[in-house]
């Protein structure tokens, strides 16, 4: 057992209101520079929909992530031979049109226009060419337009029949999917970089990109199946989310977490067994979620604590793991799931799938709260179970159903307690089926609905002074220096 620590994340999708405050907070701090205009290290997309860059989930098009090869896995985008063959022309990159052409407005026209009968207008101009453009795409262009024949129709997670059903007007539904880099345990971006510019920090697992080593081959952009590395056309280097590590090192939550209006974001340490990475990432698809969960270790287990000490994990990391809200949602309650586990990067950002409207019968456009069935069955929920499974469990419907059943049980329990109109036999059956108890429901409810700032973000004291020791004979880490956009930091890098 090789015990490692990872700063991990959980987003509760039922709580996201799609306000994009997270995206703007990140943009203002990190990508408000020339060459980064089109980059949104944090973006929020509408599902069903095609996302940003468009159709990023379609790995037939982009060749991101890993694929099985015998008993192990290989990158989809390249092996050694094709890396050399494609090094001057990367055929699977998204184009600027797949993202969108960034623009601003000629605001000066509003002030400089001569007096006349018509209102002056500010024309959109490209931030790349400076020329007038017609806007026809944006990073959240399909915001709230789920079910539209333009966007939902092209969502690669939907079958043809499901698309037809979704366009029936009374079934229209959508939810928001905020996305950042997953700081994966088996990052395809790191593995695909011919220059070794990407690395995973040994002590906290944050995946970074060394600006001095990057040679702009852009294999990381194709390699990342989530399309969370980006090319800066001004500096000629790639860039990515750094999980606001300068903020974390001073005890502050990342900007997108701190600013989240819906309070959907949780951050905490997970301890995991690094010896299991290859076997887990190579497992059959329907076992991926469960095996990734099994890699996560109990931070209260004395054997794990001893293992952590042996691997050089500072005890403050173990203490943070013991209080981690992410541990509770992912491992203890088994409520949070990785996004597209079939990409096999072992993402360390987990999601609680949205329960979606599950209220019972509608009459004359109004939910009938007097109906016997206040909550309807999951099978009558508007988005098909198969669709949720395609997003969060590599197609394993039972796994996603169990999570949704647990969420429904918590809601039913709270309604029974607060309003008292729930059938107690039915609630008892729900407890039996999901393994939940009133105490567990209360715990889940409290951390979901009433968490304080300190409950949501358990940030470990970062012991950067110990990292040099950790790097001595640690295959994951060695020293390097990065710097961009006026920011410089000293960090350790992995191989
Ligand atoms: S999501 Fe994973 S593969 Fe993509 S950039 Fe982040 S760490 Fe790398
Ligand atoms: S700030 Fe929070 S609630 Fe708003 S879009 Fe971002 S993740 Fe959702």
TrEMBL record:
CDD domains: NarH_beta-like
Domain of life: Bacteria
Subcellular location: Cell envelope
Primary residence: other
Gene Ontology annotations for the cellular component aspect, listed alphabetically: cell envelope; membrane; nitrate reductase complex
Keywords recorded for this protein, A-Z: 3Fe-4S, 4Fe-4S, Electron transport, Iron, Iron-sulfur, Metal-binding, Repeat, Transport
Residues covered by the 4Fe-4S ferredoxin-type domain: 7-35, 172-203
GO molecular function, one term: 4 iron, 4 sulfur cluster binding
Biological process terms in GO annotation: anaerobic respiration; nitrate metabolic process
Cofactor: [3Fe-4S] cluster; [4Fe-4S] cluster
NCBIfam families: narH
PANTHER family: NITRATE REDUCTASE BETA SUBUNIT (PTHR43518), RESPIRATORY NITRATE REDUCTASE 1 BETA CHAIN (PTHR43518:SF1)
Protein name: Nitrate reductase
Species per Swiss-Prot/TrEMBL record: Candidatus Thiomargarita nelsonii
Gene: narH
């Amino acid at each position: 057992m090789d015990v490692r620590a990872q700063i991990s994340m959980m987003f509760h999708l039922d709580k996201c209101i799609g306000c994009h405050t997270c995206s703007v907070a990140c943009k203002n701090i990190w990508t408000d520079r020339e060459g980064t205009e089109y980059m949104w290290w944090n973006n929020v997309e509408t599902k069903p929909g095609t996302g940003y860059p468009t159709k990023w989930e379609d790995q037939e098009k982009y060749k991101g992530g890993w694929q099985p090869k015998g008993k192990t896995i290989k990158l989809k985008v390249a092996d050694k031979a094709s890396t050399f063959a494609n090094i001057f022309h990367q055929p699977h990159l998204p184009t600027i049109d797949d993202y969108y052409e960034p623009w601003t407005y000629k605001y000066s026209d509003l002030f400089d226009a001569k007096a006349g009968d018509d209102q002056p207008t500010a024309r959109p101009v490209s931030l790349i060419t400076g020329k007038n453009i017609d806007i026809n795409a944006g990073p959240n262009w399909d915001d709230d337009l789920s079910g539209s024949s333009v966007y939902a129709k092209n969502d690669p997670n939907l079958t043809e029949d499901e698309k037809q059903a979704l366009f029936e007007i009374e079934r229209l539904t959508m939810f928001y999917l905020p996305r950042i880099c997953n700081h994966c345990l088996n990052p395809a971006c790191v593995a695909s970089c011919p220059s070794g510019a990407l690395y995973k920090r040994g002590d906290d697992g944050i995946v970074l990109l060394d600006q001095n080593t990057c040679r702009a081959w852009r294999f990381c952009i194709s390699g990342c199946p989530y399309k969370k590395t980006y090319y800066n056309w001004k500096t000629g280097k790639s860039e990515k989310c750094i999980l606001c590590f300068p903020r974390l090192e001073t005890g502050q939550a990342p900007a997108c977490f701190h600013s989240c209006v819906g309070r959907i974001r949780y951050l905490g340490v997970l301890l995991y067994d690094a010896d299991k990475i290859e076997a887990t990432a190579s497992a059959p698809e329907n076992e991926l979620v469960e095996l990734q969960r099994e890699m996560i270790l109990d931070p209260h287990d004395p054997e794990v604590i001893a293992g952590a000490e042996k691997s050089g994990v500072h005890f403050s990391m173990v203490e943070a793991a013991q209080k981690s809200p992410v541990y509770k949602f992912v491992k203890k309650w088994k409520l949070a799931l990785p996004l597209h586990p079939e990409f096999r990067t072992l993402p360390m950002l987990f999601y609680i799938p949205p329960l979606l409207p599950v209220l019972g019968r509608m009459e004359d456009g109004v939910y009938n709260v007097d109906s016997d069935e206040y909550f309807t069955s999951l099978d009558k929920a508007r988005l098909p179970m198969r669709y949720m499974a395609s997003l969060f469990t590599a197609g394993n419907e039972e796994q996603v159903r169990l999570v949704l059943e647990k969420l429904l049980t918590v809601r039913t329990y709270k309604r029974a307690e607060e309003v008292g109109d729930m059938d107690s036999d039915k609630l008892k059956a729900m407890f039996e089926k999901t393994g939940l108890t009133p105490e567990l429901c209360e715990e889940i409810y409290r951390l979901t609905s009433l968490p304080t700032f300190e409950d949501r973000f358990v940030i470990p004291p970062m012991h950067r002074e110990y990292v040099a020791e950790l790097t001595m004979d640690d295959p994951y880490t060695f020293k390097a220096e990065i710097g961009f956009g006026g920011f410089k930091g000293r960090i350790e890098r992995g191989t």
